[in-house]
Each structure stands twice: as C-alpha cells, then as structure tokens.
C-alpha cells in the first residue's frame, strides 16, 4: 500500500500533472472512456443496483459528462492568477491569487451512485493538477471492478490509480499521507477518516448524510407535491443521500398525501412495482434487513411488501410515526417514507432544529414567506423549495453538508477549488527602498502615525491613490529623515 | 449539592451560549454590527492598557504594538463593519436550462458555537482578528486566549467581555489540561492558531464531533536570495521581518538560502542594518522585543550553538534577551534547521543557484510563507511556480499578510483553511445552497418521471447536446 502511494507521489513530484494541456488531455481521455465504454459502465452500475440503463445513464453518466465538459470549457480560465485589490502600501506591486495543486488526493467513493461519486470528484482533482488515488466502495463490486479496469486504459497510469478492497485495505490506506481526502459515506466512518487525516494534518471534505426533512404546508398543490416527492424518494430505491427522508405535515393532510403518493407510484412503476425496470433493489442483504427492521411496529399506509431473494422492498409510506421509534433514529436510505404529524410550521421548525443538521431540507408551499421562514430558522447542507434533489443538479452550487452531515463542498468550480491551494502572492521590486525607511527602527511616534496611515487608509480612485502614495512616500521619508 | 471534582467547568457556559444561538439572537445585522462596534471601542478605550500589557509580555515597542496588534485589529473591525451587509447578502448563482425560472442563491449562515484558540506571539491580533470574522458571521464565540501571554490574557478576560454581549460571548482560561477538557466538548467550528503538534491534537478532538477546523500553524519559512541583489536592501528587508517581535512571528523568514559569495556580501550588510536598527547595544534598544518565557529562551539559547555565530549570539537569561543573531556553516541535521526557530536567529544555508534552492525547499514540509529576493522577475516567478507554501512574497518579507484582499493561511503541515477580511467571514459561515423552484410548471418535469422508454433516453441525450450551459438537465 505504502509503495503504491509512494509511486503516485513520485509521479506527482515529476510535475507531469501540472501543465494545463496535460490536464485537459486527461479530461478528454476520461470523456472518451465514458463515451466509448458506456455499455460496460452502465452494465456494471446496473448489476450493482438492479438499475435500468436509462436510470444509470440519467443519474450518473449524464452528470459526469456535464462536469467534464464544464471543466474543459472553464479550466483555462481557472488556472490563471487572479489579481486582487491592493492598498496604498502595495499599490505598485503585483498582488494575486495563484491556484496550485495540492499533491496526492484520496477519493473514497460510496456504493449508491458508485460511478458518479468517484468520477465527479476525480474530474475536479485532475483539473486542479493533482495525482489521485481512488478507492471505490467495495459494496458496489462491479463498478469497482470496471473502474479498476478502465481508468488505467485511458488515464496516466502512475498519476491516477484505483485501489480496491474492504475495511482492512481502507484502514491501511488511511494510514498513508495525502494532501486532501474526499470521503462520501456515513457519519461513523467520516469520523474515522477525519481522525486518520488529523495525524497528517490532511484537509478533508466529508460528504455524509442524515435525515433530510420534507415539510408539506397546507397551502400547496398536493398532486404536484406528491409527484415530486415520490420521484425523489423512490429513485435508486431510496438510496440517495439527499432523498427526502421523512415528511412533516399537519395530521389532516396525511390521508391525501398517502393517496396521491400511491397513485403516483402506480403511474411511475405500474401495478406490479416488482416488474418495473425503473425500480431498483437494495444494495445487499445487510441493508435489506436493516430497512426491514425499521418497519416493525409501524402503521404501513401502503407498500411494505418485500422479497429477500431479490432484495426488493416496495415503495412504502408510514403514517402517524412516533419520533422516538427506530425509523426516526437513523437515516433510512431505503424506500420507506415516514410521515410525522406536526401541528404547524413552528412545531416543524422546532422538530428539525432539535435534530442533527441534515444534508438537505425540503419545504413545499405556495406561501413564499413560509418558505423563507423555514430557511431562515433552520440549517442544512442545502435546500430545495417546492421540489426535491434539484439543488444537487446545479453545479454553480457548492454541494456539501454542515454539522454531522459533513464539511466542505464540491461540484463544478468548487471541486477545483477544494483540490487547489489558492496561494496569495505579492511581488515587490527591490527599488524604492527609501519608502521603507518609514518602517525601520529606530521608531518614533511620527513613524507610528505614518505607518497607521498607510496601513489603514483607503482610497476610492486607484490612480489618484498611486500619485498620492508616491508623493506621500517621498514626503514622509524626507520628513522622518529630517526628524532623525 | 457537593461540587464534584469531576464537574465540568465549561458545561454551563457552553450551554448558555448555545441556547442564545438557538433563539436566533446573533442573526441580525444590527446585532452583529453592535458587537463589532463594541470590539472597536474595546481597542480604543484600552489602547494604553494594551500597549503596556504587550510591553510586559513581549517587550513590544509602541511601534510594533500599534502596527502589528492594535491597528491591524482595528482595521479588520472597520472592514467588517463597512462590508457586513454586503457579505451577508444571499449570493445568486448562474442557473442551468432546467432552473432558469427558479431562484438560486447561496445563503451565508453562522455555524453556531465557535471556539477560537489563540497563541501568545501576537496575542491581541491573533485573538481579535478571528473574533471579528466569527462575530460578523453571526456566531456565538468561546475565546481561549493563550495563558503564556499573561498580561494580555488578563485584559481579554476582564475587560473584553464588558464590550460584548455576554450571552453569546465568553472567555475561558487555562493551560493545556483545561484546553484538552474544553476540546472534549462539541463545537460547530474550531479556529486554532499555534504549532503543528497541537494542531494535530485539536483536529483529532474535532474529528470526534465532525467539527470543521481552521488551523493556522507554522513551519520553517525559506528565504532565497539571488546573487544579483543589492545586499544592503536585502539585509534591511530580511532583518526587519526576522527580528520583528524578536523573531516570534509565524511568517518570519526562518532561514536564508544563498550562494557563499552572496553570504559574504550579506554579512556586513546585515551587521550594518542591525546596528542601524538597534544601536551598538541591542539589549538597550526599545525597539527590540524579548522572548516570551524561560522555556523558549532556553530553547533558543541552545540553538545559538549550531553552526558558527557570525553576528550577535549574546543572550541574557534575566532579561530573556537574545541578540539579533546570524548563524553560518550550519548543517541541515542541526537543531536550528530541524524546528521552527521562532526567535531572533537567522541561519544562512548555502546553495549554488536557484535549482538547488528549489530542491532544498521542496525536500521539506510546505511552509507558511516563502520569500525570494531577486532582480530577475523570472527567478522570482520560477521559485513561485516550482514550490508550494501558504503565501509568497517576492523581494520583501511578510507584507502580503497586510493586504486584506489576500487570504492568510497555510498548506500541508503549515495549516488548513484561511482568513483575513472577507475570507474570515466566509470561513465562519456555512455556505448553504438554496434552490427555490416554482410549485407549478410541472410539465417541464415530465421527462424525469418513470416509466422510462428508449424514446425518453433519446430525448434526454438530444437535450443534453442542445444545452448551452454544461449542467445537467434533469
């Protein structure tokens, strides 16, 4: 393991990954990989999650292609130095921010969107000029295998490597030193990753999870609301970190909500959901059993059918759920939707605030003031109002959590920034040493006053400031010299 | 009820602050501005007291105290007050085809309960500047000033709270043991300035609660001097930044890299500069600081034995005085090149040219600052391109940190995160992505709903290719 990481580090130190042309070439190669080997990639995702080709393509591949194109288009601009506003003291100097690669980056993926959650960070890491070690989730075996097979065929084999394995291998890997670690997964392992990172002072981006609440106001069009929620909840069989985890609404709405979700489920997946090619399965037996146990003692309004052999769990809705029960104690990550009745929006807000900050928060209402209030008085990684999931799709948004749902963010330019060091640079000249006499000891009160002046004074008009600076610098130096 | 020896001294304070945060007390711009103005008044009302305390703790001259502690802090307060409302504004972001009709913005939110742990070398600046950011961002703050800079610690504990709303601000005191205890609690953000060793301890403690951190650490900041420079100008600039605060500055040039020929020219120039700055007897100059305590004094005195003393080398235990010193003939393995010096000692390492210098620098941990002196801008830019460091300054010392439009922070072992100016506000804020969609226009969503057919897929691919912005359509 150590040798592998060393090899990648040596490759980075060679400087190969830094030139813009190289980065663009690698990104183009990645794009070719996704296009040429689309069938293999889709097949892998499909067999891991019993996903239809359409879903695999639209949920994972499309976003990847979009990110690569976005990166290719904008990278030439992003790698350039950005000048910053100067003050009187630095008026004649060059002051800018220069993005630089961090070095060797570790990306640990998750199994629920096994391709997207590896490749999207990878794109940004490559774009930022780093070397990358990828550790796909071992639970999505086929995708892990195909990544290990395909990436070396298209990308530089020393700069970007795939390491596969389980808990043991990941633990070994985490003992090594990296320059940034991006982890997608659960809170428990998130803590382990951060603790391992602390030993090397490695910065981390942790994309974790939580229970994303979904508040439905009385004042809304339930038909539309329930369609949108049904789409977001049962996509990928509920195995989405930003799926609406549970619903909060007034008790009087429950029956209607149940009815409309039921109708929508039928519309989306047909009479026999099990036969719909668009409905996925639970990733493995362990999670299947886990989700099943959440149903114990609950009022199943509809759904609840399961089949262990195929790891099938029907789209399920629970009503009158008691917040103290198990289904409300952990992130569900499955096609079970509890409805917890609350009396009003105040109670909903309190309910949300009593709990850990979620990765996403959803609120449905025609009343914009209510939506605004919900946002103002709660916290979460992100918010979508009157829909679900969608804030994930806009890559001008930083995507990440807060509190126990995570730290850091990525997507689009935010990925580039996450994997770069934005280095502040000030370039002065060796001339005009006279002006510096102001700062050198022996000091005097007048020097203090002049020093403060130059440090704190702002000017609105740059050219005027420049003129004034030169004039004042000369005056000051002369005066101070005269005062001795 | 007995006061149990195991009772947590911080529990009540932290609970009180958290409760205040939860009721939304710190959210309004008016409240935050009032806090910042309070901070400004603290600085103005107590200016003399602060100067005296800094003189007591570190023998800082009025010049150093004013410029590097009071004025910098005041400047940050003013900057925050001027820009608070602009910084707090929701930031609208470019939208994709699918979200054209929606409202898409980033909301800056306070994290909640913030812990700031400050060091002793710039005990006012490095406490107040982060505090400005945390308050401007609307957080409740627990401040843990350094127990080593005792006089300032006292003022921060006794005077500062009177200027701020104490329901959302507290100062806690103590040494390593108390700090360890404090760190067992859950915070929503931890801002630490200090050594890498303690930085690891802080981050490990933060990991238990998944608390995000900013760590402003340190390292050995290299300073390359090219042969084509005027040695006197270089000597002036390097000496000023090296001996400022008796060398106890995280961004000071730690060691020099130059050719033996340049070294020959630099030595007399450095001697001339030091004499001009501090007189023939630097110990009696009011412009030279002192070492913070005995422990660091002894540590530094031991370093005087490395290599050969070319300039200075005197020390006085009673005064915790170390003369502005330059060491030559130093081996890389000697202690003075193994740890961050943090004192008025400047070793000169010889290299033959830029390549060797770059190689020397890159063999070591990434420093907090990097300096390169050369008349050739090519040389300066080359060093910039082929190394990494928190910040970089060409042809001067750490001037770059006085520019609030430049972020201040480390990379690698020199730190995580950054601050100053708007970067402070952003550091102490959670950037929350908010997408507000229309409750109608459902037809536009039709393509995303199952059941899916090959026709759907073709539609999607066509839509993908027709987009004018590279974002997903769904």
Question: What does this protein structure show overall?
Answer:
The complex is a heterodimer of chains A (484) and B (474). By secondary structure, chain A is of the alpha/beta class. Chain A is 44% helix and 16% strand. In chain A, the strands form four sheets. Chain A has a seven-stranded mixed beta sheet with strand order 10-13-14-9-8-15-16, sandwiched between helices. Chain A has a six-stranded mixed beta sheet with strand order 5-4-3-6-7-17, with helices on both faces. In chain A, α2 (20-36) packs across α6 and α3 (38-49) packs across α4 (53-78). The radius of gyration of chain A is 27 Å and the shape is globular. With 474 residues, chain B is of the alpha/beta class. Helix content of chain B is 41%, strand content 16%. In chain B, the strands form four sheets. A seven-stranded mixed beta sheet of chain B has the order 10-13-14-9-8-15-16, with helices on both faces. In chain B, strands 5-4-3-6-7-17 form a six-stranded mixed beta sheet, sandwiched between helices. In chain B, β8, α10 (231-243) and β9 (255-258) form a beta-alpha-beta unit. Chains A and B meet through α4, β2, α8, α9 and α10 of A and α4, β2, α9, α10 and α11 of B. Chain A: Pfam families: Aldedh (PF00171). Chain A: Keywords: Endoplasmic reticulum, Fatty acid metabolism, Lipid metabolism, Membrane, Microsome, NAD, Oxidoreductase, Phosphoprotein, Transmembrane, Transmembrane helix.
């Amino acid at each position: 393991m150590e040798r592998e990481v060393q090899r990648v580090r040596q490759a980075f130190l060679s400087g190969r990954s830094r030139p813009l042309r190289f980065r663009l070439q690698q990104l183009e190669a990645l794009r070719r990989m996704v296009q040429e080997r689309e069938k293999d990639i889709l097949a892998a995702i499909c067999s891991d999650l019993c996903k239809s080709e359409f879903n695999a393509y639209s949920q994972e591949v499309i976003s990847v292609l979009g990110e690569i194109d976005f990166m290719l288009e904008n990278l030439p601009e992003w790698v350039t130095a950005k000048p910053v506003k100067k003050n009187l003291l630095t008026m004649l100097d060059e002051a800018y921010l220069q993005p630089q690669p961090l070095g060797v980056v570790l990306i640990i993926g998750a199994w629920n969107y096994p391709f997207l959650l590896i490749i999207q960070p990878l794109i940004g890491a490559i774009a930022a000029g780093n070397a990358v070690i990828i550790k796909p989730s071992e639970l999505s075996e086929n995708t892990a295998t195909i990544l290990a097979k395909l990436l070396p065929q298209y990308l530089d084999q020393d700069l970007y490597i795939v390491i596969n394995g389980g808990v043991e291998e990941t633990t070994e890997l985490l003992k090594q030193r990296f320059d940034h670690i991006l982890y997608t997964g659960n809170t428990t392992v998130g803590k382990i990753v951060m603790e391992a990172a602390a030993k090397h002072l490695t910065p981390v981006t942790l994309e974790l999870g939580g229970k994303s609440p979904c508040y439905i106001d009385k004042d809304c069009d339930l038909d539309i609301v329930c369609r949108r929620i049904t789409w977001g909840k049962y996509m990928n069989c509920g195995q989405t970190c930003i799926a609406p985890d549970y619903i909060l609404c007034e008790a009087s709405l429950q029956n209607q909500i149940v009815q409309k979700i039921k109708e929508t489920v039928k519309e989306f997946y047909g009479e026999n959901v099990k036969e719909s090619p668009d409905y996925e399965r639970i990733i493995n037996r362990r999670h299947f059993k886990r989700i099943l146990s959440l149903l114990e003692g609950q009022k199943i309004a509809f759904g609840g059918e399961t089949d262990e052999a195929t790891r099938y769990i029907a789209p399920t809705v629970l009503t009158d759920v008691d917040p103290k029960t198990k289904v409300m104690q952990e992130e569900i990550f499955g096609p079970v939707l509890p409805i917890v009745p609350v009396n009003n929006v105040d109670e909903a807000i309190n309910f949300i605030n009593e709990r850990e900050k979620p990765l996403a928060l959803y609120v449905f209402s025609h009343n914009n003031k209510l939506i605004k209030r919900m946002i103002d008085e709660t916290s979460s990684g992100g918010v979508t109002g009157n829909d679900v999931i969608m804030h994930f799709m806009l890559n001008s948004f930083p995507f990440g959590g807060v509190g126990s749902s995570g730290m850091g963010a990525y997507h689009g330019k935010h990925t580039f920034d996450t994997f770069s060091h934005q280095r502040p640079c000030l370039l002065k000249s060796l001339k005009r040493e006279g002006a510096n006499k102001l700062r050198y000891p022996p000091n005097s009160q007048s020097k203090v006053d002049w020093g403060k002046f130059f440090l704190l004074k702002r000017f609105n008009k740059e050219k005027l400031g420049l003129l004034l600076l030169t004039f004042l610098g000369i005056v000051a130096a002369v005066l101070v010299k005269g005062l001795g | 009820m007995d006061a149990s020896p195991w009772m947590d001294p911080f529990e009540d304070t932290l609970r009180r602050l958290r409760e205040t945060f939860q009721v939304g007390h710190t959210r309004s711009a008016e409240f935050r501005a009032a806090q910042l103005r309070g901070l400004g008044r603290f600085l103005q009302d107590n200016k003399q007291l602060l100067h005296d305390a800094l003189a007591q703790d570190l023998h800082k001259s009025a010049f150093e105290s004013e410029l590097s502690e009071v004025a910098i802090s005041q400047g940050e307060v003013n900057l925050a007050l001027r820009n608070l409302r602009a910084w707090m504004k929701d930031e609208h972001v470019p939208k994709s085809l699918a979200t054209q009709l929606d409202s898409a913005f980033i909301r800056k939110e306070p994290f909640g309960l913030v812990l700031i742990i400050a060091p002793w070398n710039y005990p006012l600046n490095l406490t107040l500047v982060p505090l400005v950011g945390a308050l401007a961002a609307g957080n409740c703050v627990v401040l843990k000033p350094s127990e080593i800079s005792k006089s300032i610690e006292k003022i921060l504990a006794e005077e500062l709270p009177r200027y701020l709303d104490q329901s959302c601000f507290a100062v806690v005191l103590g040494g390593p043991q108390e700090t360890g205890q404090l760190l067992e609690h859950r915070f929503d953000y931890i801002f630490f300035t200090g050594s890498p060793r303690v930085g690891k301890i802080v981050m490990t403690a933060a990991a238990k609660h998944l608390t995000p951190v900013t760590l402003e650490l340190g390292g050995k900041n290299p300073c390359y001097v090219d042969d084509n420079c005027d040695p006197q100008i270089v000597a002036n600039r390097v000496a000023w930044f090296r001996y400022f605060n008796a060398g106890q500055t995280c961004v000071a040039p730690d060691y020099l890299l130059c050719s033996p020929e340049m070294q020959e020219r630099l030595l007399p120039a450095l001697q001339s500069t030091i004499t001009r700055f501090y007189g023939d007897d630097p110990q009696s100059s009011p412009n030279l600081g002192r070492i913070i305590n005995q422990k660091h004094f002894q540590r530094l005195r031991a370093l005087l034995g490395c290599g050969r003393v070319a300039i200075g080398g005197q020390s006085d235990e009673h005064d915790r005085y170390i003369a502005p010193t330059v060491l030559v003939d130093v081996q890389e393995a000697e202690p003075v090149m193994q740890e961050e010096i943090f004192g008025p000692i400047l070793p000169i390492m010889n290299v033959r040219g830029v390549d060797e210098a770059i190689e020397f620098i890159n063999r070591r941990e990434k420093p907090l600052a990097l300096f390169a002196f050369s008349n050739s801008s090519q040389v300066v830019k080359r060093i910039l391109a082929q190394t990494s460091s928190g910040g970089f300054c060409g042809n001067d010392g750490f001037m770059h940190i006085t520019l609030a439009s430049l972020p201040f922070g480390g990379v690698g072992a020199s730190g995580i995160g950054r601050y100053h100016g708007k970067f402070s506000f952003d550091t102490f804020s959670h950037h929350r992505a908010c997408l507000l969609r229309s409750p109608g226009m459902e037809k536009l969503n039709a393509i995303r709903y199952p059941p899916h057919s090959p026709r759907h897929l073709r539609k999607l691919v066509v839509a993908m290719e027709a987009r004018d912005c590279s974002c997903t359509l769904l």
